[in-house]
Every structure is written in structure tokens, then in C-alpha cells.
Write a structure and sequence with these properties.
Blueprint lengths: L21 E6 L5 H4 L1 H6 L3 H8 L9 E5 L7 E6 L8 H17 L4 E5 L7 H15 L14 E5 L8 H22 L7 H11 L6 E5 L1 H7 L2 H7 L7 E8 L7 E6 L1 E5 L8 H4 L7 H15 L5 E11 L11 E3 L5 E3 L7 H15 L2 E8 L4 H6 L4 E5 L2 H14 L3 E3 L17 E2 L8 H10 L7 E5 L25 H14 L1
Parallel strand pairs: 1-3, 1-4, 4-5, 8-10, 8-13, 9-10, 12-16, 13-17, 14-15
Antiparallel strand pairs: 2-3, 6-7, 7-10, 11-12, 14-17
Helix pairs in contact: 4-5, 5-6, 6-11, 9-12, 11-16, 12-15, 14-16
Bound molecules: ligand BES, manganese (II) ion and zinc ion.
Subcellular location: Cytoplasm
Organism: Zestosphaera tikiterensis
Main location: cytoplasm
């Protein structure tokens, strides 16, 4: 995947001289567009002021105008409403970048020039956010003959933007990483299974300073990682645990661990899902995909942090060999688990990876990213990931990081009482609760049993790992996998590495 959107700058003395298939501008309710874009308005013989006077251009959030200007070098003008400047948020700038690209794609344009609005934020921040939105929007997962993407995206602004070239370099890497995560998550099970996921990981990190270890079936057997082994038993393709280490802070510093759920396809196992429930389950490896993408971003950006990413990979399929309800699994950490439902498989593979990380690394914290439960979708819809943790500081850091990147997380409790529900008559715990009550919390409570002393957070991303039909539509998130959590955790790690 080549990211070739940003091709540098040309000098223009006035906006109406931009040479591109389209120019895109952001307008606001409380600043007249002809004042904000004086040179452009003049070059267009007062078009902006006339549009405003006619009431067709109000600057309200969500408003988009596409105008055709055959006599101009840019031929098309895209105008995106940004609401009130007093209410401007970071995400509105991402949305502006994203909306500009979406409209350019609609019109099948090869090149787009986005004007950076002059607002109450540093030029660097504006450029970063608009470019991030544009880069994320200029992504499409498709196996069609032809994919329409904007080949060239440029930014115009005051001279100062010339000083912020590194900003674009950083955004390009972040966007490339997120889109790589989306590629991995979007790929259907006939392309990506535990074997080909492994191959993809080696390819992704080729030439980057990371160590990759893979624990294959025999290794998992030796170590007693029976959670991963049991879930993977129904498939012809054996499960495995991939471990990616990036030691950017040196050997004296503790590790940040990120564990991603990698169920390459979740048919439910012998507790088979129904057709509609199964239809989206290629996305059940999103956590693993996004964790790999995170490691890629961290390595590309050379963050001074020690990061270890662990992705347990398996296919959850029914077969004569599949694990069965009422099986009792002895997990890597010694706990026994009574399988009450083979469709509650994510927690079993994550559990082994969590306790493996805690046993084998000196950890600062451990965060897992998982499409764990349908119940979290009932609770929060597609607007936030469920956040569960045993540590207040970690919780606050994650919430802060999430506000920066507009990837919402929302805390849910892990009170003692919930643990009653996973008591088993025959094993230490069972893998589901009682009825449908508090399903997302039960999943998290189960996981917490596999972390003894490390600050731990679990992000249940089932509602937000891919764009659901009825979910929110952000222009910078095209159909399919969202890459949720990559930017969030990157931000979290950046802060952690700066304060360590
Ligand atoms: N991968 C699913 C969770 C899921 C459901 C993700 C819908 C995204 C959308 C998970 O493995 C699962 O099947 N969970 C069960 C748990 C139940 C058996 C306790 C669920 O949510 O129904
Ligand atoms: Mn399942
Ligand atoms: Zn699953």
C-alpha cells in the first residue's frame, strides 16, 4: 500500500489561482465567507458573498456545496460548513478534510487542493487534523476492478505551512498505519487466516526495527496455552500467538503491552451463530489488525517507548475436532475454565495472551483491544468503545488520549458482584455469565482474572471496529473497518513516552 498523497507545495499568491481539479474551503456561520476568503471572492466576482446573501451558504455544520467553475484553473469549488468558530473542535477539522476528499472522489477527480482555514489553532494543528481527515477518507477497501481514489492532495495556506512539512510526514505515517490496520481487518477469511495473517505481519515489518516471535501449535502445547489451542481446534489452519517487540526506550524501561483479539473468522464454533450474526465475523480479528497497525506506526515514528504487541490468532469453526460445550480448559495461568458457550471464544484466546505478557515482560501497563461482545453494542452502539480497567490512572490517560483523537471510550464498572456470575460448579470459572445480563461486563470480568498485578485496560470495540449500517457516518471513515484505537493508543503511548 503506497501512500503518495502529499507531493509538496507550490507558491500561489491568491486562492483563485490554485491549479487543481478542485479547491475545497471551510466556511463558518459567524464569519462571512467573503471576508474569510477575500482574494477568492474577488477572483470569483463576489460569488461567495452572493451565495451567502441568497441563503444557500450559511456555514452550518453538515452543509456541503459543490460548484462548477469552468473558467477557473480549479474548475470545481467544494464548500464545507464548519458551524460556529466559537464551537470549533478538532474533529470538525478532520471532518472538513474527510468531506473534501469524499466529494472529490464522488466527482472522480485526480487532484484536490484543500485550503487550511484560519482559525484559533496553530497552523501545525490545523494542517495535521485536516490532512489526517483527508488521508483517512482517501481509503477504500475493494476488490473491484477499479478503485477511485484522489491521486494528489495538496494544502494551501499562509507561508507558515511551509515550516510544518514534518507535520505532513507524521500524518502520512499515521494514516498509512491506520489504513494498513483497516486492510488487515477488511480482508475476508478466504484471504486472511492465522497463517496468512502471520505472513502479512512479516511483510509489514520488513526492514523495521522490531523482533517478531511466533508461537505455533507445538509451542503453545508446550507452554500449556490451551485457551488459544481449544478455540483454534475446529479449523484446519492451526492457531498461533504472534508477538511483536519494538524496544524504542532501551532495556531498562518497562514495556507497554497491547493485546489484540485475532479471531480470523468467528462462526461461533459448535454454538453456531445464525446467518445474520455470522455475516460480519470476518471483522472479529480487528483488535489484532489494529494492534499490528499500532506497532507499525510506533516503529515508523520511532517513538521512544517499549511496545510489545501480542495477537492470538484462531478461527472459531464447528467441526468434529472443535472444542465443545462443557469442556474444561486448563489455561496458561493455571485457572480452569468451563466452556458454557463456544461462541464466547475471544476471552479464551485473550486470557492466555494476557497472562503470557504479564509473566514474560516487565510491564508498565497492558491494554487489550477486542471485538468481544454483542452486548457492548447494545450498551453503547457505534459511538464508543467500552472501557474496563483495574487502574484509575490508566483510565484517565486513555480518556484523555481518546478526546484528542475523537475515538470515544466510555467506562463501565467491574464491581465485585459481577464475579458471582462467572462462578462454575466444576471449574474455577466459566466463560459466560447468567442469561444476557451485563454481557460486556462479564466478558471484561473474565479477562481480569488473567491479569494479576499490572495496570490493565480492556477496550471492547465490537460496536466501533467497522462502520455499521445504522451507525454514525464520519466522512473520514469509509465503509468497512475503521482502524479504531490505532490513533488513540498511539496518542496514549506518545504521552507515556514523554512523561516517563
Ligand atoms: N465476536 C463476537 C462478539 C461480536 C458480536 C462482535 C457482534 C461484533 C458484533 C464474540 O465472540 C461473541 O460471539 N460473543 C458472544 C458472547 C456470548 C456467547 C456470551 C455474544 O456477544 O453474543
Ligand atoms: Mn464468538
Ligand atoms: Zn468473537
Amino acid at each position: 500500500m503506497v501512500f503518495n498523497m502529499f507531493k509538496g507545495y507550490e507558491r500561489v499568491s491568491s486562492l483563485d489561482l490554485v491549479v487543481c481539479d478542485a479547491l475545497s474551503i471551510m466556511v463558518f456561520e459567524d464569519i462571512a465567507p467573503e471576508v474569510m476568503y477575500e482574494d477568492l471572492d474577488r477572483g470569483l466576482n463576489g460569488l461567495l458573498s452572493k451565495l451567502r446573501a441568497s441563503g444557500d451558504l450559511t456555514g452550518k455544520e453538515g452543509e456541503v456545496l459543490k460548484l462548477y467553475l469552468p473558467e477557473k484553473p480549479f474548475k470545481r469549488l467544494i464548500i464545507v460548513g464548519g458551524g460556529k468558530t466559537s464551537e470549533l473542535t478538532k474533529d470538525r477539522l478532520r471532518v472538513f478534510g474527510g468531506e473534501s476528499v469524499v466529494r472529490a472522489k464522488e466527482m472522480n477527480l485526480a487532484s484536490l487542493c484543500i485550503a487550511l482555514p484560519k482559525v484559533n489553532m496553530s497552523v501545525e494543528d490545523v494542517l495535521y487534523l485536516v490532512a489526517e481527515g483527508a488521508g483517512l477518507a482517501n481509503y477504500e477497501w475493494s476488490r473491484k476492478k477499479e478503485v477511485k481514489l484522489v491521486k494528489e492532495i495538496k494544502f494551501v495556506g499562509k507561508e507558515e505551512i511551509l515550516k510544518s512539512c514534518e507535520v505532513l510526514d507524521t500524518v502520512a505515517k499515521v494514516v498509512e498505519a491506520v489504513n494498513l490496520g483497516r486492510d488487515l481487518a477488511n480482508a475476508p477469511a478466504d484471504e486472511i487466516n492465522p497463517q496468512t495473517f502471520e505472513e502479512a505481519v512479516f511483510k509489514v515489518f520488513n526492514g523495521l526495527p522490531v523482533k517478531i516471535k511466533v508461537l505455533h501449535k507445538e509451542d503453545l502445547e508446550k507452554l500449556g496455552m490451551n485457551g488459544i489451542l481449544s478455540v483454534g481446534r475446529g479449523s484446519n489452519i492451526p492457531p498461533r500467538l504472534i508477538i511483536v517487540e519494538y524496544e524504542g526506550a532501551g532495556p531498562d524501561k518497562p514495556w507497554y503491552a497491547v493485546v489484540g483479539k485475532g479471531v480470523c473468522f468467528d462462526a461461533g464454533g459448535l454454538n453456531l451463530k445464525d446467518s445474520s450474526g455470522m455475516l460480519e465475523m470476518k471483522y472479529d480479528k480487528s483488535g489484532a489488525a489494529y494492534a499490528v497497525a499500532l506497532a507499525y506506526a510506533v516503529a515508523k515514528l520511532k517513538l521512544k517507548v517499549n511496545l510489545v504487541v501480542l495477537t492470538p490468532l484462531a478461527e472459531n469453526l464447528p467441526s468434529g475436532n472443535a472444542y465443545k460445550p462443557l469442556d474444561i480448559i486448563r489455561m496458561y495461568n493455571g485457572l480452569t475454565v468451563e466452556v458454557r458457550n463456544t461462541d464466547a471464544e475471544g476471552r479464551l484466546i485473550l486470557a492466555d495472551a494476557l497472562s503470557y505478557a504479564e509473566k514474560n515482560y516487565r510491564l508498565a501497563s497492558i491494554i487489550d483491544l477486542a471485538t468481544l461482545t454483542g452486548a457492548v453494542v447494545v450498551a453503547l452502539g457505534s459511538h464508543a468503545a467500552g472501557l474496563f480497567t483495574n487502574n484509575e490512572d490508566l483510565k484517565n490517560s486513555l480518556i484523555k488520549a481518546s478526546e484528542e483523537t475523537s475515538e470515544r471510550v466510555w467506562p463501565l464498572p467491574l464491581w465485585r458482584e459481577y464475579y458471582e456470575d462467572i462462578k462454575s460448579d466444576f471449574a474455577d470459572i466459566k466463560n459466560i455469565g447468567v442469561g444476557r445480563a451485563a454481557g460486556a461486563i462479564i466478558g471484561a470480568a473474565f479477562l481480569s482474572k488473567f491479569v494479576e498485578k499490572t495496570p490493565w485496560a480492556h477496550l471492547d470495540i465490537a460496536g466501533i471496529a467497522w462502520v455499521q449500517e445504522e451507525g454514525p457516518k464520519k466522512p473520514y471513515l469509509s465503509k468497512g473497518a475503521t482502524g479504531f484505537g490505532v490513533r488513540l493508543l498511539l496518542n496514549f503511548l506518545k504521552t507515556a513516552s514523554n512523561t516517563a
